[in-house]
Specification:
single chain, 458 residues, alpha/beta, TIM Barrel, Glutaredoxin, 2 domains, 4-stranded mixed beta sheet, 19 helices, 14% strand, globular
């Protein structure tokens, strides 16, 4: 019997042989762009979300779709304030536990509150329309990222100074995750993706100390309820791939910062499937259809035919050209089209970005801190990287100039290339990549900036 898209996806997640790679475009706020709705309105309307997802199904012919890609839903219910934008998901701007409160002081968590009813209604509607042939993914905020939303950047210091406190907090966040997973599974989701981007910022030792057991408790709960579980981490999670693969998830998805071959080998050794890692900005957002096809083919050649899901490295940017997404997906869906694309030799000229002006750092009186981000308003690691730079500048006072460069814009991509940032997010101090994909604590960043200030005075 011929497999439909949902069958292919579920088999791939289970690490089984499939006739072709599975294809899951991570359509979050991008669904709003597809129907002409601003992201902030889209993410607060089940009607708009339903329209956007059905449009994505029409354009991209996916094997699976996330109902929403918004890692702030749980945090919002628990008292975090959000900043909304028209071209991306909201970001957390307050941390209710930062001043010493405990989880017991937070509002009671229930999926009857906040935006969960909206998203679950959209799931019900979309599943009724296409759920027989398209797998439904419920995305929940991972326990470490949720803990950081609640406590703020202080969590990185308290992982050393208040170990038991942080362990209790992450265990609490795992319980929130189990409740969120229940809501999605009861509404008909096939797969629960635990999205925990901030684990890219910690060491393997800290992952095992603080995250492994709570995350596995969420995955085990999903399995007990009959669902499949994915662990999704954007950012450079390379050093944590092995410990991530030791958890009880079924699947691991990563972004372009991670070597897909390395992930394949590590995941396969643990009997897990894997997914990723189409480049979001350089290819899907700012590239051409041919570049999207070429990037997809490279991923597919690595993924092979067992347990691989072709997917973007994270939530599709709002303004991603639909033709690029469709072109990438076609490479998974149609072997003939894939072979045709292989035969089209295009010598793409790299953009040199000579027109993007890089400061003369030696001539500048201030120390310039360039923060290279995807967009701090919509990307959690980028938000906390930018927050670290801002807090350090406030600590020092005069003599520091913090500038954000978003690679979703040509200027930001040019700075990324010309400064050889390598990964996103990155902090460069007077043009030197200093903290690459690792969020520094305030003291380390302040010390690095002051060291540069002293050098400039000589």
């Amino acid at each position: 019997m011929e497999m439909n898209g949902r069958d292919v996806l579920l088999s791939a997640i289970r690490n089984e042989e499939t006739p072709r790679p599975a294809w899951v475009p991570f359509v979050g706020c991008h669904g709003g762009a597809l129907i002409g709705a601003p992201a902030d309105e889209y993410l607060q309307s089940s009607e708009l979300m339903t329209q956007g997802l059905l449009k994505a199904d029409e354009l991209y012919h996916p094997d699976g779709l996330p109902i929403s890609f918004d890692l702030q839903m749980e945090a919002e219910i628990l008292g975090c304030e959000l900043r909304w934008v028209s071209d991306g998901p909201p970001s957390v701007v307050s941390h209710p536990l930062a001043e010493g409160a405990e989880p017991g002081d937070l509002p009671p968590f229930t999926t009857d509150a906040g935006r969960f009813p909206i998203v679950l209604d959209a799931l019900d509607r979309v599943k009724a329309e296409i759920g027989d042939r398209v797998g439904m993914l419920g995305l929940i905020c991972g326990p470490f990222t949720l803990a950081l939303h609640l406590l703020g950047n202080n969590i990185f210091l308290e992982m050393f100074d208040a170990v038991e406190k942080v362990q209790r907090l992450i265990a609490y966040c795992a319980e929130i995750g189990r409740q969120s997973a229940d809501a999605y599974l009861e509404a008909g989701a096939d797969i629960i993706a635990v999205v925990d981007p901030m684990v890219s910022q910690i060491s393997p030792e800290h992952f095992m100390q603080f995250v492994s057991e709570p995350a596995s408790s969420v995955f085990d709960h999903i399995h007990e309820r009959g669902g499949l579980a994915s662990l999704f981490c954007c950012g450079d999670a390379t050093r944590n791939l092995e410990v991530m693969a030791k958890t009880t998830c079924d699947n691991i998805c990563v972004d372009e910062n991670v070597d897909l071959k390395l992930l394949r080998d590590i995941a396969s050794a643990e009997g897990k499937s894997f997914g990723g890692n189409l480049q979001l900005t350089v290819v899907l957002l700012l590239g051409t259809e041919q570049q999207a096809k070429s990037a997809a083919i490279k991923c597919i050649d690595i993924g092979d035919s067992k347990g691989y899901i072709l997917a973007p490295g994270c939530d599709l940017p709002y303004d991603t050209p639909p033709e690029n997404v469709a072109a990438a997906g076609l490479m998974a869906l149609d072997e003939y089209e894939r072979e045709v694309a292989r035969q089209i030799v295009v010598e793409a000229q790299e953009q040199q970005f000579e027109d993007v002006e890089v400061p003369d750092y030696e001539a500048e009186e201030d120390v310039i801190v360039d923060v290279i981000t995807l967009d701090s308003a919509t990307c959690a690691p980028c938000q906390y990287m930018m927050d670290a730079a801002t807090r350090a500048a406030e600590e020092i006072g005069e003599g520091v100039d913090v500038r954000e460069h978003k690679i979703t814009r040509r200027e930001g991509l040019g700075m990324f290339c010309r400064l050889n940032a390598g990964h996103v997010p990155t902090i460069c101090i007077d043009g030197e990549p200093t903290f690459v994909s690792i969020i520094p604590d305030k003291n380390r960043l302040v010390a690095a900036i002051r060291k540069r200030m002293e050098e400039k005075r000589r």
